[in-house]
Amino acid sequence: MKIIRACFIISLFAFVGLGLGTVVYIYTQWQKPSPLKEPILLEIPKGYGTGQVSSLLQKASIIESARSFKWWCFFHSGKANFKTGWYEIPVGLGFEQIAELLSSGKTASRKVTIPEGRATWEIAGIFANSPFKLDSAKLDSLMHSEAFANSLGIKAKDLEGYLLPDTYNFPYGTDEQGAIKILARANLKLKDELQALNSPVWKELGDWHKVLTMASVVEEETGLPQERSLIAGVFMNRFRIGMPLGADPTVRFVFRNLTGPIYKSQLASNNPYNTRKFTGLMPGPISNPGRLAIEAVLFPDTTQYLYFVAKDDGSKEHFFGKTLAEHNRYKEVAARNRGER
Length: 341
What we know:
This protein is mainly alpha-helical.
């Protein structure tokens, strides 16, 4: 009997000791910073609970013990409301900081800049070379899908002109559709903002599509902020009197000839985007204009100028003229600036 009692007491002490050891181990884990050696990205898939997240953290070497983290979450349930997404995990975090980060919904993002005046195929290339490495062919297909454009609330045959240039923080894991939606929604948000300003030019041109179409030409003709409204005024003057806009960038758009000489055969093209040959606006934008070019169209300078030509003196500025004779004289000056005469 004494032997049985002794064995029972020894077993009890062993059990208690083991339990205390486990408690001490778990509590010690709660106090330790993450063993992570360098920041990593971690995805919390949809529907993952505490146990799955704990295992995920241990597998990624963010914590040493999944069991310890599960117990921490059990005793701190109000601080463990994990949200789906990608998270950038820095080094040195404790359990509470890890739980706070994964419950914050502040998912990892990557910055991508879309410059003003880029055509859709150029934007596809920017995304293909971004940290997301998106599929340029899939992007191009989506950007030129009338059905996809309509699904975004855009009544156009494609999304040329409707992808607002800016610097964006895209959530990590953004796919082709998601990236395009972010740019298109920013464009439509700007539309609502600018429409509320009641520009008479908006009514004159007819709708947002035509505003973007004119703005894309202005965007391509000058990169100088001080010239945008004046060049917009020249194009509006031409539009009002039925004179061809005469913008070479519209011809370049047709042939995707962004640099280099424009050939006579291209200038003679019967493509409706050829504003050197046809009057009025093209069927749609030739690039994606930025906010400043759009505002320049909606609020252009009041001017009598009908012509402009690049000075070609390194300033990137233009000569402006009221008559063809004046314009031709400026063309001669520009040719001399280029060293041609």
